[in-house]
Design a protein that fits this description.
Number of helices: 2
Strand content: 25-35%
Helix content: 10-25%
Radius of gyration: 17 Å
Order of helices and strands: EEEEEEEEEEHHE
CATH superfamily: Jelly Rolls
Number of domains: 1
Shape: globular
Largest sheet: 6 strands, antiparallel
Oligomer: single chain
Length: 163
């Protein structure tokens, strides 16, 4: 394995770092009580990755088994217990546990503990996943019910394939 091709060709470096203070509020709140912080989006990382802090309230919720064709997804549990599905079995993820899912890997997550839990979610490369999460939040906040065909169309637009 070697380093990828250079992306910055300047000679002296540049002042371009960004700091997101920990006390910034969430970028998205879902009807389930989940709060999402967009720490780094594909847009802000020049397509390198997307990194989100996912804070789940005590109400049950999460993602059902699915896979992606274009992106990897990784989960790092920060607090509480997050059930992680590796395509074969569910396991209780605790603080410090990490699950990496390559392209095509079936996976899911949920908080079924009855207690708050949080995790980091990393996508590579930096696809515009926040648009998908915002659509889901709008659907749940509005109470709108999608037909199976509408769900399939939504998922296809966002590289999400149900299993």
């Amino acid at each position: 394995m070697s380093y990828p091709q250079q992306r910055y060709l300047g000679e002296t470096g540049q002042i371009s770092a960004t700091l997101r203070p920990a006390d910034n509020g969430p970028d998205l709140s879902m009807a389930t009580g989940t709060r999402v912080h967009y720490l780094g989006t594909g847009g802000s990382t020049n397509g390198a990755y997307g990194l989100y802090r996912w804070e789940m309230g005590p109400r049950p919720g999460g993602a059902s088994p699915h896979f992606h064709r274009t992106i990897t997804e990784s989960f790092y549990v920060l607090t509480g217990t997050v059930q992680l599905y590796d395509g074969d079995k569910w396991a209780d993820g605790r603080p410090g546990d990490f699950l990496h899912v390559p392209e095509g890997g079936v996976h899911a997550f949920r908080n079924a503990s009855g207690e708050p839990a949080s995790m980091l979610v990393l996508f590579t490369p930096g696809a515009p996943r926040e648009a998908y999460f915002e659509e889901l939040a709008e659907i749940t906040h509005s109470g709108r019910e999608l037909t199976p065909e509408e769900w399939t169309e939504l998922w296809l637009r966002h590289d999400q394939y149900a299993v």
